[in-house]
Amino acid sequence: MSELFWPIVFLAVGLLLLVLELFVPSGGFIGFSALVCLGLGVWHAFQSSQRLGMIFVLVDFIAVPTTAVGAFRLWARSPLGRRFALTPPELDEVDVSHADRRVHDLVGVDGRALTPLHPCGHVEIRGRRYDGMAEAGLISEGSRVRVVRIRSNQVVVRTLDVPATAERPSLADDPFSTPVDLGAEA
């Protein structure tokens, strides 16, 4: 029997048990047995010679991760793995979750302010609610607005309602507009 027989046998059994650990629920017993077999393989290799032991340590550092990755890939294709793995989303689900693509299409579209924009609030555009920001000043609730640009995934709006200019009171109605005679000239 060659000096390589037992190290190779323990290495092979250890790698096989490592793969088996993914497919058979054992509470870690099979995985622990795999580690013991891998350790025994290295120990037998060092019993033969130090050089052979270092070679088996190197082989373990390469073979164990490679086997684990291959086992996980194999497990993901198994019926058990497919039950645990998530399915990729459909294209329409991805479009719904990325609303920022649609927000850029709103520039130039009219809507209305759902809340007062001081300067931030909510606006309704095409029947949907968006976070909005007034371009300048304050916009009252219910005002008609137009999207002028998108900033940080937030619509920047300008009011379309022309604010009513307040009538200035005439000077004749203002009692303080006429000078007061204090009688100092006498």
List the helices and strands and how they pair.
Blueprint lengths: L4 H19 L5 H20 L1 H28 L1 H6 L6 H7 L2 H4 L6 E4 L6 E6 L2 E7 L9 E8 L2 E6 L27
Could you explain the architecture of this structure?
The protein is built from 6 helices and 5 strands; from the N terminus they run ααααααβββββ. A hairpin with a 6-residue loop joins strand 1 and strand 2. It has a 5-stranded mixed beta barrel. The protein is α+β, with helices and mostly antiparallel strands. Helix 1 packs antiparallel against helix 2 (29-48). It is a multi-pass membrane protein. Pfam families: NfeD. It is found in: Membrane.
- Major β-sheet, in short? 5 strands, mixed, barrel
Cα distance spanning the termini: 140 Å
The helicity comes to 40-55%
Q: Note the overall shape.
A: rod-shaped
Low-confidence parts: none
Q: Which class of secondary structure composition applies to the elements?
A: alpha+beta
SS summary, helix count: 6
Order of helices and strands: HHHHHHEEEEE
Mean pLDDT: 83
Give the structure's gist in a few sentences:
The chain is built from six helices and five strands; from the N terminus they run ααααααβββββ.
What structural keywords apply?
single chain, 186 residues, alpha+beta, five-stranded mixed barrel, 6 helices, 5 strands, rod-shaped
